[in-house]
Structure formats: structure tokens, C-alpha cells
Amino acid sequence: MLPRKMLDKLGISSPDELFREIPDKARIDGLNIPPPLGQIDLEREISEILSKNRTMDDLPTFLGGGVYRHHIPPVVQEILSRSEFYTSYTPYQAEASQGMLQALFEYQSMMTELTGMDAVNSSMYDWSTALGEAALMCHRIRPGTRFLIARSISPERKAVLRTYLKGINASIDEISFNPSTGKINIDDLKSRLGEDTFGIYLENPNYFGVFEDEVDDISRTIGDRPFVVGANPLSLVLARPPSEYGADIVIGEGHHLGTNPNFGGPLLGVFGTRKEHIRKMPGRIIGATTDMAGKRAFCMTLQTREQHIRRDKATSNICTNEALMAVAACAYISAIGKRGLVRLVSDNVIKARKFAKMISQIDGFDAPIFDATHFNEFAFRSPIPNDNLQKKLLSNDVHGGIPLDEGFPELENSMLLSVTELHTEHDLLAFKAALEAME
Amino acid sequence: MSYRQACYDEPLIFDLESEQFCGDEVLKDSPLPETLRRKCLNLPDLPERDVMKHFVRLSQMNFSIDTGFYPLGSCTMKYNPKINEHIARLPGASLIHPNQDESTVQGALQIMHELENMLCEIGGIDAVTLQPAAGAQGEFTGLQIMRAYHEDRGEERKEVIVPDTAHGTNPASAAMVGFDVVELPSKNGMVDCDALKSVAGRNTAGMMLTNPNTLGIFEKDVLEIADIIHDCGALLYYDGANFNAILGKTNPGKMNFDIVHFNLHKTFSTPHGGGGPGAGPVGVKKPLDQYLPVPRIVKNGTYYSLDYNYPKSIGKVRAYLGNFAVLLRAYAYIRSLGPEGLNEVSSRAVANSNYLKTQLEKMIDLPFGGGRMHEFVLSGEKLKSKGVRTLDLAKRLLDYGVHAPTIYFPLIIDEAIMIEPTETESIQTLDRFAEIVHEILQEDSETVRSAPHNTSVKRIDEVKAARELILSYRSLKEHERKFKSHSS
Ligand SMILES: Cc1ncc(COP(=O)(O)O)c(C=O)c1O
Description:
CATH superfamily of the largest domain in chain A: Type I PLP-dependent aspartate aminotransferase-like (Major domain)
Distance between the termini of chain B: 43 Å
Bound molecules: pyridoxal-5'-phosphate
Structural class of chain A: alpha/beta
Order of helices and strands of chain B: HHHHEHEHEHEHEEEEEHEHEEHHHH
Strand order of the largest sheet of chain A: 1-7-6-5-4-2-3
Number of domains of chain A: 2
Radius of gyration of chain A: 25 Å
CATH topology of the domain at 86-336 in chain B: Aspartate Aminotransferase, domain 2
Largest sheet of chain A: 7 strands, mixed
Oligomer: heterodimer
Radius of gyration of chain B: 25 Å
CATH class of the largest domain in chain A: Alpha Beta
Strand content of chain A: 5-15%
Number of helices of chain B: 14
Number of strands of chain A: 12
């Protein structure tokens, strides 16, 4: 019901009169959706539906592959709950939005530090679309028809890349990995490089959690073709920044810095590049400047690359991004701090090693299947087909890792297992016990 | 005037002093072999107390819906009900992994499946994907579907028609999918059917249209437009950014659109998060459903599963199934309003817009006159005679504790001022906004031109930002060093 005052002012007796322009043939007669629920019933009903889920609290879960559950310090949740942040829009009016702009500038600064890039944008949708956009950006830097990727990347991201490449009619070519180390096969890389190759992408650590240690060779082999590296930003707390081995673009997933898995969304696509390519970059970028009084201030910059100005010539169509997730990452890194991060990431690596060792002690189980330095995840092989294994694990109240044989038929009966600081000794033992029960 | 935004000289978090020395020795304890290790890392290391203070101060220097009126046209800055925030944080929603076995995420799949069905009903379409992360990605998805449809029929159609009033994402998305963009000039702020007929043809893959359009004008010839497009074998795409204006009154299906995207962060009240996240589900009419991204959520009896077996699918547009935490909030919003509630949303949104328009059009020109839907666009062109531009008016509004409208968009209006009050604002708020505009127009032009005065910083030099390109703490320090050595 509209207030009387409003109807009078508008000179109408019913709001229907405001919709006169809609042709009769296009009108609808009400919506056939469930009746409204008050807050109490709404929460009850949704909680009841959600209770059909088994959460990562309900059962130890060893899933990773890009989405991870790390501990979120309550201070991070408090910061994210500030409605001044989460109910604001893109900071078009910079003077009224310095808080968001500074937080995003700090996020960019932290990510440039981790990746070694000169500029990181203030977010893409997720790692997979960052990959799609990176490939398109490579194509702007150097035209061509073939984009080379390591086979050892996430199949999920590969699928998204394929969709993004349709617009430029480019194809994907895969570089094999060494079956015993899981690392990229450099000879294969050499043989596939051609004049039509407009970019190369690999992940480090790769999808199997394996660190590539011949990146300097790889970089030399690639020469001046655009080189894209994907990395979990947490790995970069300890590992060499990809700038040191010639990356032109660095991408990754950052949701686990401060937010929960949320069934896979929202996520945070990290995207950075070198100075010489900044103008070819997609996404919003925050820059430092000054106000009329000479005081330091922040605003969105290089907007002439973006859709609202450049329209069909823009470097990307992205508008709404994942800004709040970037603030989360910034708050998370700040809250854990440099020493805390080094400790946390080191502990994760050590725990994964220990976990692999525990599993490999069981007869018939192999972990990790690759002989290499791993991050916090690794591939393991069992004598049991994955479907069966997962079912049996679930019946023991444990959730296994991501089955690998769908994306990699050559890795039969293999799973990707991931651990973080939230996995207790008890969780690891529960997994081991469940495997032992299957022998 | 009494408004003042908080103003702290808050240093960058990197410049807050840590009491503990935090050099790079810590990196030597790394479990990684020497060859893989990084040698230095500059990240803050502060007590929690200092971190919290820093971000609370930043938040207080940030205008938001919860702070005040935010009439940003095209963005639908409605209030974000807190119950939805509460629900999205339930562990049953937040602590599930996208790769979990189907049997362990039946609740999540049920919510998504029901949301798909409700969006089908609201949109008048046959099938929905929840995968796209935002409106622009919805456009990308919908246009991929358009491309797949034509390719499937063995036709290579290269052109997508976009009115000159369209949002920038429309042409940008079309280009990303590999189409050539044909810009259609409008007539009296609407699609000119004769002009459309002259460009639509065998090479047309489709047309993208927002209805009401970005001027807030309902395209009353929409059925004729649909006929023109369909007659040449092309598809009509609905940019759902302005869905708030038509909820429960009409729907894109009834208006004969073939492909639709929704902006859940606009119409369905999920918070904008300072720029994101959002969600941009895409709906289609049959037989286009066969091209939707995989996996699709299917229901067998009471069991939900993920089906990848759609050989004609365009594939995946992002990882996993979508921005679930956003989808859940939108689901809660729709369930809490129900059919009547949603119908009232559009009534009030359009009434609020017209109410404010009747007051403001007396002060600032309204090109093309007439009624409007949920938003309206003024032209600040004549303000120039007072020495004031739209930009100045926008900045001065900030001084009064309200956010500025969207400005300089749509591009066809000179000095555009695009105002969308939304349904959640009171008459009092609208009256006060009109009063503020009135007051500003009486002020001396110098005060307005030098605005804002009451925000945490004064007018910002954006040209300098683009020239100097200081994009990180590292480059800021380098810049300061250079500057110092120059001045000494
Ligand atoms: C008319 C219109 N179309 C499309 C979009 C793009 O939507 P998103 O920002 O969710 O990508 C917007 C957003 O501002 C819009 O206003």
C-alpha cells in the first residue's frame, strides 16, 4: 500500500496507474511462488533445509583444489560485518568512499608483494575467470591462435578457460607432466611452442600440490611470449614470487584468506601484471593520489580500459567484482601478520607431509604419488575405485579428497587430498583408520 | 548543514608501527628447499587491537546504504535485510565445500534448485543457471548461448544490436564473445523501430535490451521490437538490471525475450560489498536450455544431483556452481516477501522514483519529459550557466550526507544525473533529498565547485592518479622517495 501523501502528490489512486506503459499482452497476473515467511519461520525453514548438508564440521573433509577451509580469526569476521563496507557500492564517489578505497589499495599492495607483480587489480570473480581473462590479455599483448597450458592445472579452470577462448577462436594445447614427479615436461613444452603460441600458463604449486623447481628453465624456454603463472597466494608466503622467474601475469584464488568455502562462492580472483602491461589489464584498479588540499587520497584509476568508458573496446566486461572478498583477504593477512603467516603456511606443509606418510604406511596405498616437494595437498592412489572409496569413507564419517580420474584418466584410483591448520591429529587418524578398515 | 564524515589521518597498514622487529629471518624456518624459497616479504605484523582500529576507522570513512540515502541510478541500492546476512552465515551454508559428494550437499542443491524455479516464474522463462558471478558475466553467458544457438543451426551471425542507452557491459560482453557491436541510436529516449528494422537482418545474432531502459523509460514497443528481431531469425536478450521496476507486473518472458539475466545484488537485495560479490543468474526459453552451462541441477524424486550430460552446453563460465552465499541471501529475500511482497517492491520503487522526479524536474531538466519507472535521468546541462557542472552537484551532495546519483551515464544525455531511490526509502528521505538539491542550487557556485568539504578528503585529483599510477604501497614509497630527493 502506498501512503496517501504519495498517491496525492502523484495524482493517482492506485500504483497500477504508474504501469500504464506495459502492453496488455505482456502483463502478468500475480506470481506463483510460495507465500511470505516471517523471520522466525524463514530461519526455521532454511535451517531445516540446510541441515540436510553435512558440513566440514560434521565430518573431517580433505577437499581442496582451489577452495580451502582455513581458520578465520573472529576479528576478520568483525571487520567484514561492518556494514559501512558490505552495504556500499563500487567507490565511484571517491571522496565519500576512502575507507573502501584504502582497504582495496592495501589489498593490492599485499598481493603485489606476494606475487612480485607491479600491479594487482582489485579482484576478478575467481581464479578460473582470472585465467580466462589472462589468456585474453595475452592475446592483446601478442596475437596468435594457440594458448599453451600445463596439463597439471585444475580441470575446473581448464573448462572455464575453454569458454573464454571461444570469443577469439583460439585453441588450447596441453603440456604433459612427468608421470613420476608430476612436474611439467620441459621437452614437451619445447616441442609445442610455436609462432602461433600467444601465451603459456602453468600453476605453481600445480593442481597436485607439486612445486615446479625448474621454473627458470621454463621461463628461458618460453622466451618473450606472455607467461602466466597461477598460484595459491598462501604458497607465496614461503615460495619465490613468480616475478623472479619471468611471469608477465600472476593469477590465483584468494577466497580462503578470510572467508569460508560457502559451497564455492563467492571466491576471489587474484590478478596481477607487470608495469609494461598495465594498460592491457582487466578489472578495477585503485591508485593513490592527492586531494585539493594535498592530502593523500585514493581513487579508481585507469578507468579508460573499462567497459563504462570503452564499451566494446574495453579490456573486459567486468563491472561488479569481488571487492568485499579482497577486503577480507586484506583483513586476514593483517590479522594473521607476517610471522603468523609464515608459521601457518609452514605448519600446513609439514602436516601434509606427515599425512602422506601416514597413508603410505598402509599396504596398497601410495602417498604422495609424485616424488616432489608439495604444498598443503598431494595426490594419493588407493587400490579401490574412487566412487567406492568415497562411499566407504563417508560411511565412516570422513570425506575424502577430490577424485582425480575424471580430469586425469591416467591417474586411476587417485584422489587429491588437502589439509590445513584446522585438521586435527584426530581427523588424520580417522582418515587413516577408515582406509585401514578397507584393506 | 550538520553532516561531517569521519576523518582520520589513517596511515596505510604497512606504515603502522610494529613493536616486534619482524625481519626476514623467519623465512629461514621454511620447510621448502632453498631453491624454492623467497628471500624477503614485506607484510604487516601487528597486534589485533591495532588491526581492528585500523579497519573500523576505514569503515567510518566509507559511505554505505546503512549510512544514508544512496540514489545511485542503475545500481538499485536498496536496504539489505539483516536476516539474510544471518542466514548466509549459518554453518550449514558456509562450511560446505563445492567438491563434496552430492549426497552430503542435498540442502544446498535444494535451495539452488528452488531458487532456479522461483526465478523461472519471476522471469517467465523455462530454465535458469545460477553459475554467473555477476550481471556482466550473465551477459557473457547469455551471449555464449546465443552464439551456440546460431552455430548449432549452421549460421554464422556476427552482429549484436545494442541501443546507445545501454550499459557499457552490454557492448563489452558482446565483444568478448566475439560479436561485432551495432549501436542503435534512440529516438525520444527509446528504441526507434524504423531504425531497428534498417539494421536488423541476416547477420544479426541478437539484440540486447534493458526494459525499462537506462533512462527509466518503459520501452512500450517491446513486443514489436521482439517481432522485428525474431523475424530475422535473431534472439532478444534481456538485461535484468532494471528488474526492480517490473517485479510482479510483467516479465521478460511475456515481453518475448529469449534470454535473461538477473542481478541478484540489485533486484533481490544482496549487499553490493563495495563493488562485489554479486550474482547474475541467466534464464532462457526452450529450446535454448540445452546450451546452458554445466553442471545442471536435476531433481529425481527428492534427490538432487549434478548433471554434466548436456552435449550442446556452452561449458563452464566460472568454477563450481555460483556465488552460493549470494544465492542463498536472494532465496531468503524472495521467500520472505512472497508474491505480494515482490509485487509491492515494484509499486513502491516506481512510486518513489516518480515522487522524487516530480520535485526535481522543477529544478533540473528532465529530457523527454513524461512518466518514469524506477529511475529517471536529469540533465545538468543548464547548470553550466551558473558555473556549475553535474560533477560539482554530485560532489556537493556528498557534503549533505547523501550519496550522489550515477552521473554521466547514460551517454546520450548531456551532463546526466541518474537517480534511483528504490522502494526502501521513506517519503521523508525523498523530501529531504529534494530540499538538499534545492539548497545546493541556491548556493554560490564556488562552494559547489570546490565541494566536497565535509567528507574525509576534499575533491580528489583523478587525473594525477592516472598520470602517476601509484598502485601499491611499494610504488607509493618509491614515489615519495623520488619526490623527496627532487625537493631537497
Ligand atoms: C543496466 C546494467 N546492465 C548491466 C550491469 C552489469 O551488472 P554487474 O555489475 O552485476 O556485472 C549493470 C550494473 O551496473 C547495469 O546497471
